[in-house]
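Team,

Forwarding the record for the chain on the shared tracking sheet. I've put the sequence and predicted structure together so nobody has to dig through attachments.
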Amino acid sequence: MKEKKIPVITINREYGAGGRALASILSEKLGIPYYDSDFVKKTVEESGYDKEDVEREGEEMSRSSKVLHDFLNSTVSYNSSHDAIFNAEKKVILKLAESPCIMVGRCADRILSDAGIDTVSIYLHASMENKKGRIEEIAENDEQKTGKYAAEHDKKRRTFYKNYTGSEIFDAGNYTFCFDSGRLGIPLCADIVLKFVEQMN
């Protein structure tokens, strides 16, 4: 009997678009692990940086930080904490991809693509109206973390992705699927991905 093949799945997303929710459903249905906040612990172990540093710099970069990063990187001896953390995350991602799993963020889609590892890649977006409810439900948010905060969060994530991949995070050409999770709903997005994975076998 032919063994069922389950691919590595990567998910990029706008803040509040439901990346973690989709990963959780796919993980349960496919019987494979998903990694989101787990990246922090594994990257801390790999890089030696503090948890706070990895949380702050492991997937986001402000424009001012990028300007400083680019300037300092013009000197031969300089190695930024952003670079060190990204390289540690890259090692973690490549190691995790040795087995079927789901990875949320961290440029995993491009890291694996550049390594020649075939993935099912997903990008989630939604209107702020549709994202607002989910943003308010996220435990780490307080009353100040509104739509304005979410927009800033996405801006830093786009800058990080562009810096390390050379591509725009929202470019549909980078993905197997791009979903408007607000209009479709996370369960339907999951059903479409599951049907696609089933047809791969």
